[in-house]
Amino acid sequence: MNYKLACDCGWETEGPEAELVEATQEHGRKLHNMELTFQEAMAMAKPVEDE
Amino acid sequence: MGWFGLQAKQFQNSNGASGVPIERGYLERNLDAARGDGVAHVKSPLTPLSHAAVSGVQCTRSTAQLLGRIRDFKALRTATSHATIGTVVAERVPGLPIDVVGPVRAEVFVVTHDGVQARLTGPDGPHAWHIETANAEHPLDLVRAMATSTMSDVLLVHSTSWRWDRQAVVLTFLVVVEPSIIGPMRSTPIVRSDLARSTAHEAPADIGSNQILEHALRHLAWLAKEDPVVAETLSEAWITELSTYVPSPFRQIE
């Protein structure tokens, strides 16, 4: 299942759980000085509906 | 001591996450207190969201903030997966990237002058760049480090104002960069704006990002007159541009 996550700064990512979390953690660390856990990242993700 | 005067004892669970156990019903009670501004003021270190959501016994700082954004708490309590949890998140606090929190937040405006006009840019786009600060870091050192690690040719980093916003002190910084580095970054011409004005008894209802940037550039105009290093660093184009701004010292925006 794919998930989508949008940061209010405009950055977005979409993909499987592990990839989405890794990208989000990197974005948080690099641009917002934040260390996000897996759970914190997934809490902000939304499942992408299959078309 | 946790927030709301909660006496809390640290724990560490099997996967190494530490946190603060919270009595059952605590979240529900404090969600009521939090609905006014959309953020639950429950602070504790990290523990799994799903555990907090399903049992209501433990929560994370981010979880607590997330919970404050949830209208249908009953649906959250019966959620059994992150996917389900995601569907019951009604809204997020607007304007903040991901979940930037903390007693002091840094807000950075990255600006440049292309010889024709002043432009707003930034590593995440032409808008305020929000950075979380940790207790041990000096905000200026942090912003300087973040700016130089994400962008080359940083000319100036300067704090310009502070304000109280969403339970935090927001320190605003102006970062001036060489126009040559705009290339891959999006940018937009800076639009002039009136400053926010408070009444005799109340702060203005809403302080817009343009107003904060307007004051930041007024402060840069002030620095260009008062600080020889700043004056020497800025280009002629910047000095000419700043001559149209009313110089203003560092101050609280209220």
What layout of secondary structure does this protein have?
The complex is a heterodimer of chains A (51) and B (254).
Chain A (H helix, E strand, L loop, with lengths): L1 E5 L5 E5 H16 L5 H6 L2 E2 L4
Antiparallel strand pairs in A: 1-2, 1-3
Chain B lengths: L10 E2 L5 E2 L6 H9 L14 H7 L5 H7 L5 H5 L4 H6 L16 E10 L4 E4 L7 E4 L6 H12 L3 E12 L2 E10 L10 E2 L19 H18 L1 H6 L2 H7 L8 E2 L2
Protein described:
Chain A has one domain (2-47). In chain A, 43% of the residues lie in helices and 24% in strands. Chain A has helices at 17-32, 38-43, and strands spanning 2-6, 12-16, 46-47. In chain A, strands 2-1-3 form a three-stranded antiparallel β-sheet. The longest helix of chain A has 16 residues, at 17-32. The two termini of chain A are 12 Å apart. Chain B is an alpha+beta fold. Chain B is built from nine helices and nine strands. The radius of gyration of chain B is 21 Å and the shape is globular.
Question: Could you give the order of the helices and strands of chain B?
Answer: EEHHHHHEEEHEEEHHHE
Any low-confidence stretches of chain B, pLDDT <50, length ≥5?
A: 1-98
Q: Count the strands of chain B?
A: 9
How many β strands of chain A by DSSP?
Answer: 3
Side by side, the strands of the main sheet of chain A go 2-1-3
Roughly what fraction of the amino acids of chain A lie in strands? 15-25%
- Overall 3D shape of chain A: globular
Q: What kind of sheet is the major sheet of chain A?
A: 3 strands, antiparallel
**What's the helix-strand series of chain A?**
EEHHE
> How many domain modules of chain A?
1
Low-pLDDT runs of 5+ residues of chain A are none
Structural class by helix and strand composition of chain B:
alpha+beta
For the record, give the distance between the C-alpha atoms at the N and C termini of chain A, rounded to a whole number: 12 Å
Oligomeric state as shown: heterodimer
Instruction: Give the termini separation of chain B.
Output: 31 Å
Class per helix and strand makeup of chain A: alpha+beta
- Average residue-wise pLDDT of chain B: 68
